[in-house]
Amino acid sequence: MNWITLVTLLWVSTMMNEAITLEDLKWKKRVLLVFPSSEEMGFDWEMSDSLALEIEDRDLIYFVFADTLHSNSSFTFDENYREELLKRYALGSKESCYVLIGKDGGSKVRKEGISVNWKDLFATIDAMPMRQREMGNNSKFFD
Question: 32, 56 in Cβ contact below 8 A?
Answer without folding.
Answer: no
